[in-house]
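User: My notes are a mess, but here's the protein and NAP's SMILES. Can you give me a structure?
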Amino acid sequence: MTSTISTVGILGAGRVGMALARQALKAGYDVKIATAKPPTEIALMVDLLAPGATSVSADTAARDSDVVILALPLGKYRTLHPENFAGQIVIDAMNYWAPTDGTIAEFEDEASSSEVVQRFLPDARVVRSLSHIGYHELEEQALPPGDPERQALALAGNDAEARRLVAGFIDRLGYDPFDAGELAAARNFDGGTPIFGGRMRLDEMRRLLGEAPLVGEAAE
Amino acid sequence: MELGIYSFGDVQRDPATRKLGSTAEATRNLLEAIKLADEVGLDYFGIGEHHTYEMPASAAPVILAAAASVTKTIRLGSAVSVISTDDPVRIFQQFATVSALSNGRAEITAGRGSSTESFPLFGYSLNDYDELYAEKLDLLLAVNAAERVTWSGKFRPALDDALVVPRPDSGSLPIWLGTGGNPQSSVRAALLGLPISYAIIGGQAARFAPLAELYRRAAQQVQLPGASVKVSVASPGFVGDDAKAAKDMWYGHWYEIMATVGKIRGFVPPSRAHFEHEANGGGALFVGGPEEIAERIVALHRSLGHMRQFFQMDVGQVPQKDFLHAIELLGTRVKPLVDAELAANPSKPEVGND
Ligand SMILES: NC(=O)c1ccc[n+]([C@@H]2O[C@H](COP(=O)([O-])OP(=O)(O)OC[C@H]3O[C@@H](n4cnc5c(N)ncnc54)[C@H](OP(=O)(O)O)[C@@H]3O)[C@@H](O)[C@H]2O)c1
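Assistant: No problem, the inputs look usable. Here's the predicted complex:
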C-alpha cells in the first residue's frame, strides 16, 4: 500500500483537471491525466496546457497512481470502473450542482455527494477535497508554507492514513490542509457553507469548523 | 483591434425606492446603448440570451433587427445564443434576417450558456446538456453551410432537402464558438473550423493564452485557412473618467450580481480585496480610467493576440446614464489609445495571426 505519494492520476482534463495537473507538476509530482477518450485524443491539449504530464487511459490513471483525483462532471461518476479503485486513495473534487448537472435524486438526498461516490467505489479510500476552491484560484493563490496569507483547504474521509497522505499532498500544492474528519463532515465545506468559495487561513477555518469534526451540529 | 460591448439587457433600479425598473424599459435602453456604441465608433455589440427579470434580453435578434436600422457600421451579434434550447433553423433565419437588414453585419456566437433558465422554459432536460449542445451546433452549421439542408438527429424530426431562407449576401453568417475555458472546447472550435470567443470573467486574464495557443495549434493541424482562425474575448469591464471612482461605483453593481449568483450556486460572494485583485493589473475585470483600460487591453493582446475584445458594463443595475458614458469613453478615449499603441508597436506575429 502507498506510503508516500509520488504519482498523481487525474480523471478529467477539463478546467479543474488541467489546473490540478499544472499545480501538481509544479510541486514535483509525476502526473498522469485521462478522460473517457483514448489518450491520443487529448495529447495535444495536455502537451500545451500541462507540459510534463502524461496522457493515459482512464484505467491507467486510476490503477497506476499513488493518488487518483476525480475531476470529471459528477453526473458521470457511474462511468468509473470500481475495480480500478480497490485500495486506492481517491480525492473527490466533484461538486453537485443541480442547475447544470440536472436534478439527480441520489445527490439531493445525501449530505455530501462524496458519500455516494464512496458507496459506488466501496474499496477505494475516498477523501473529499479540492472541491471548495475555484479552478483558477487553485493556481493563482498557492503560497509557500509559513506565509501569513496562506489559505487552508479542507479534507474529509473515513481512512485516517489516506487523510494524512492527502494532507501532505495539499501542503505541497501550496495550501494548509485542514483535516475535518470523517467523510460525512464534507457537508461542512460543501456548497452553501461559508467555506465554499470563501478564502480563509487555517486559523479562520479552524474557528469555523472546530478542532474536532463537527458532523451533524454544523449542518443544522 | 476591434472593441465592443455586450449586455444581458439588465433592468434599472430606482436609487430612492430600490425598486427594479421594467423589462420593457430595459429593452429600450439596450437599443439606445447600441445606437451610441455605433456613433462613437465601436466595432461590435453582442446581446447575451438570458431569461431572468434582472436580465431580460431573451430575444436578441429582435433587438438587433431594430438596431440594424439605426446603426451604420457596428457589427451586431449574440453573446451568446443558448443554442442547446432553441431551434437552430430558427436561430439561423433570425440572424440571417438581421444580416439582410444590416447589410451583412450580423454574427452568431453559439454557446451553452452558463445559466440554465432556458431548459425548463422551452421543455428541455438538463440531463441532455452535452448531447443537445453537440446536435444543435451540428444543425446550425449545416443550415449555415447551404440553403438546402438534409439532416437528421435525435432531438427533432429530420430535414430532407429543406430550404432555409433568407440567405445573407455573403452566403453564410459568421458563427463563433463561445467558451468559458474548457480546453476541449478550444479543440472543438478548431476541428469545426470556427473562430473562438473566450468569456474571461474572473481570475487572471492571461491564463487563457495557452488555450488560444491550443486553439491555433489544433487549427494548424486540421489546416484551417488563416482567415477562419480568430480569437475574441468577452470580459466584464467599465470605463469612467476617474479610475478610482469608476472602481468604487462599479464594485457595488458587480457585487450585486455575484451575490445573486452565489446564492443560487452556494458560494460566498467575493470581498472588496478579491475585486481589487481582479480589477487591476492582469485581472479579468477591466474597470478603470481610459488610459489604464487601454493599457490593460494592449497587455492582454500581447499574450492572447485576440482580434476583438468586448465588455459587459451594465451588470447589476448600472444606471443607464453611466453605462452610456462608459460606452462613449470606450469609443472616444480607449479605442484611439489602443489603435495608436498597436500601430506603433504591433504584437509579435507568433501571438496569433489575426
Ligand atoms: N470549475 C471549478 O472551479 C470547480 C472547482 C472545484 C470542483 N469542481 C468540480 O470538478 C469537476 C470538473 O469540473 P470542470 O470545471 O473541470 O469541468 P469540465 O471543464 O467540463 O471538464 C470535465 C472533464 O471530465 C472529462 N470526463 C468526462 N467524463 C469522463 C469519464 N467518464 N472519465 C474520465 N473523464 C471524464 C471530460 O472529458 P471528456 O468528456 O472528453 O471525457 C473533461 O475533460 C466537476 O465535478 C466540478 O463540480 C469544479
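Confidence is low (pLDDT under 50) at residues 213-220 of chain A.
User: Great, I'll file this with my notes.
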